[in-house]
Amino acid sequence: MSMEQIIATVRGFDGALVFVPEPGDGSPEIAWGDAFFSYAPDGRMSQGVQPYGTIVTKDYPDDTASDLDPPGRWRVNVHVGRPVFLDLTGEDPRRLRHPRDHAAVDSVMPHPVYGALGWICVVNPGDRTTDTVVRLLRDAHDAARRRYERRHEPGSA
């Protein structure tokens, strides 16, 4: 599945907000071309709420392990939480111990920087991981929707 297909899939989720920074929109240049997935039924990014998923298209200064600078390389990142993380990787995100080749393609693994916070990643999802990536993005979207609804219940402040 291509990056564009994943973005289109997430855009199809009810209440999804997909932000793809580009020149002139006020976003930092380093983020241009990446994608950020949030639950925002009003179509506006909420301050203080992190996206539940991203696609990055290049190495960042503190995140080079996936070797994303060569053409055609990109990575999907999804916050899955501890139980799903453990199920996918066999490890508690707070106790990561196995070294990994974070540049490997089509493989679900802990995020090289945010794995300890319950994030997984896949470089260039392919036949082995596409269904899993879409399912994880859907589940993360649904979890973000539930958090949004709790924050917006009458009487919550």
Could you please describe the fold and organization of this structure?
This protein is of the alpha+beta class. The chain has a six-stranded antiparallel β-sheet. A hairpin with an 8-residue loop joins β5 and β6. The longest helix is centred in the C-terminal third of the chain and has 22 residues. The radius of gyration is 16 Å and the shape is globular.
What's the total helix number?
3
**Based on CA inertia axes, which overall geometry fits?**
globular
Main beta sheet? 6 strands, antiparallel
- What percent of residues adopt helix (DSSP H or I)? 25-40%
**Portion in strands:** 15-25%
Low-confidence stretches: none
**Averaged pLDDT, please?**
95
Strand order of the largest sheet: 1-2-3-4-6-5
- SS class: alpha+beta
N→C terminal distance: 40 Å
Number of strands: 6
Order of helices and strands: HEEEEHEEH
Q: Determine Rg (CA atoms, Å).
A: 16 Å
Question: What is this structure's SSE topology?
Answer:
Elements lengths: L2 H9 L4 E4 L15 E5 L13 E4 L18 E5 L1 H9 L19 E2 L8 E5 L6 H22 L6
Antiparallel strand pairs: 1-2, 2-3, 3-4, 4-6, 5-6
Q: Which short descriptors sum up this protein?
A:
about 160 residues; alpha+beta; 6-stranded antiparallel beta sheet; 3 helices; 6 strands; about 25% helix; about 15% strand; globular
Task: Give the gist of this structure.
The protein is of the alpha+beta class. The protein is built from three helices and six strands, in the order αββββαββα. The chain has a six-stranded antiparallel β-sheet with strand order 1-2-3-4-6-5.
